[in-house]
Amino acid sequence: MNKRTAYAIGGNAVVIGVLLMLLGDFMFALNDAMGKWLVASFSVGQVLLIRSVGAFAVLGPMLSRQPLSALYRVEQPSLHLLRIVLATADTGLFYAAVAYLPLADVMTFYMAGPIYVAALSHFLLGERIGWRRWLAVLIGFIGVVIALRPSEEMLAWPSIFGLVGSVSFALTIVLSRMLRSTSDATLVTWQTLACLVAGAFLTVGNWSPFTFGELLALLLLGIVACTAHLLITRSLKLAPASLLAPLQYTLLLWAVVFGWAFFGDFPDAQTLFGAAIIVLAGLFIFHRGNLKQDVEPIVPTESSHG
């Protein structure tokens, strides 16, 4: 194989990787919109329970390709347990938030995830963060406050759900770095099981009957989320993370589109301004981290309320 052929093959792989990442982000946004639609009729616990069952339609083939011991022989069990708790909190709080807030508003909180990760990585992972990125972290926090609206609304439960959920998401990402030798299938399986158990607990005395079509929609929610995860995992094997990571912000674009198209919600100027600050701060942190090569890009994963 000559260099020109190898370059062409490599270039095609990168293009495919970018397309898979964009499709995966779209699927995650679709998952979010479906979740908002479903929590309008069913409790958060019921959504967690049935979507987790649906997720195993995708997880089953993944689990069949690895030994059973991979599920219980995990590194650092205490960190693994903490990650499971935080990932479950992330998912549940996201659905609780979108039950009351516009999709784009909640997604704005979650787009601050890379900013939280940059700050947390300094303290939990010992990664050196220069003054420029610390300044970007501070500016990103200001964007979050603007989006939250400095008023009594900041203390309303839906806003707190979104904020705490986004911090749980960031902590889950940091723990995923610390547990990077554990397979995706193992990590996703345990957090899916945890969501199933949490959902079963939360549905006690809070169960709503559903039609066959609604059951299919609840199951499809889990299938969509797992499919998004697989698409993004594959994209990272075909294209550099440095190219793919900024594409995560298309999630916010899709949140605006789906929120307007399906729920009649459109973010106001203050939310859009806060979101713009968060995105710019996140992109700068990513850019500086890529130059320094000491902070890994953050890309959406199954832990992204999926």
TrEMBL record:
<keyword id="KW-0472">Membrane</keyword>
<feature type="transmembrane region" description="Helical">
    <location>
        <begin position="7"/>
        <end position="31"/>
    </location>
</feature>
<dbReference type="InterPro" id="IPR000620">
    <property type="entry name" value="EamA_dom"/>
</dbReference>
<feature type="transmembrane region" description="Helical">
    <location>
        <begin position="187"/>
        <end position="204"/>
    </location>
</feature>
<feature type="domain" description="EamA">
    <location>
        <begin position="16"/>
        <end position="148"/>
    </location>
</feature>
<protein>
    <submittedName>
        <fullName>DMT family transporter</fullName>
    </submittedName>
</protein>
<feature type="transmembrane region" description="Helical">
    <location>
        <begin position="81"/>
        <end position="101"/>
    </location>
</feature>
<feature type="transmembrane region" description="Helical">
    <location>
        <begin position="107"/>
        <end position="126"/>
    </location>
</feature>
<feature type="transmembrane region" description="Helical">
    <location>
        <begin position="155"/>
        <end position="175"/>
    </location>
</feature>
<keyword id="KW-1133">Transmembrane helix</keyword>
<feature type="transmembrane region" description="Helical">
    <location>
        <begin position="210"/>
        <end position="231"/>
    </location>
</feature>
<keyword id="KW-0812">Transmembrane</keyword>
<dbReference type="InterPro" id="IPR037185">
    <property type="entry name" value="EmrE-like"/>
</dbReference>
<feature type="transmembrane region" description="Helical">
    <location>
        <begin position="243"/>
        <end position="263"/>
    </location>
</feature>
<feature type="transmembrane region" description="Helical">
    <location>
        <begin position="133"/>
        <end position="149"/>
    </location>
</feature>
<feature type="transmembrane region" description="Helical">
    <location>
        <begin position="37"/>
        <end position="60"/>
    </location>
</feature>
<feature type="domain" description="EamA">
    <location>
        <begin position="159"/>
        <end position="285"/>
    </location>
</feature>
<feature type="transmembrane region" description="Helical">
    <location>
        <begin position="269"/>
        <end position="286"/>
    </location>
</feature>
<dbReference type="Pfam" id="PF00892">
    <property type="entry name" value="EamA"/>
</dbReference>
